[in-house]
Design goal:
This protein has strands at residues 4-9, 15-22, 26-33, 42-49, 58-64, 70-76, 85-88, 94-99, 104-108, 114-118, 126-127, 149-152, 156-160, 167-172. It is mainly beta and 180 residues long.
Length: 180
């Protein structure tokens, strides 16, 4: 069908649980992180809607990966979210970074309280930190790995510090990039 779901299977391919996360013409992108520190993963999902008149186009969900219990959610109208990047910072502080289709960069904590930064008005933005690592392969802030938060718009590659305060690097493309 045309809806978006998160489905978790066991090691034999049996469905453990499934949650509908979006209406028709939506998709969901996920990342995994132990957000609550209990030793098991949570699934962080961010939806994008491909319909202009969707009242809640961008949604962030946090599900318990084992049970499917929805722990938190956050909704915005007028924009869709890109793939989330969840990681732990100093003192195991959780950060969830996500871009949106309006050019804003979001940093959420484990309770989905956020800090917002407009990077390029009207241009979709995506966080690239987990794009090459795949689902669940992250480089925590407290260990060696990604030295900065790397984002891309349709015409720029930008690196910020983890607080999204300082622009470390910026490269402008002459032609649009099609990886968002």
């Amino acid at each position: 069908d045309a809806y978006s779901y998160i489905t978790v299977l066991d090691s034999k391919g049996n469905k453990l649980w499934q949650k509908k996360t979006g209406g028709w013409y939506t998709d969901i992108r996920i990342d995994l992180e132990d957000i609550d520190g209990n030793g098991t993963f949570e699934i962080i999902g961010a939806t994008a809607s491909h319909r202009v008149n969707d009242k809640t186009r961008g949604k962030i969900f946090i599900f318990d990966a084992l049970t499917g219990e929805q722990k938190k959610s956050f909704f915005i109208s007028g924009a869709s979210f890109s793939r989330p990047y969840a990681c732990k910072g100093k003192n195991d502080t959780v950060h969830i970074f996500v871009g949106d289709s309006s050019g804003r960069l979001w940093r959420f904590d484990k309770n989905l309280k956020y800090k917002l930064k407009t990077v390029k008005q009207g241009s979709p933005i995506a966080v690239l930190n987990n794009a090459t690592g795949g689902i669940g392969v992250n480089w925590p802030l407290k260990k060696s790995g990604w030295p900065s938060l790397v984002v891309i718009t349709l015409s720029e590659l930008i690196a910020y510090d983890w607080e999204m305060e300082t622009k470390i690097f910026q490269y402008t493309f002459e032609s649009p990039v099609s990886i968002i």
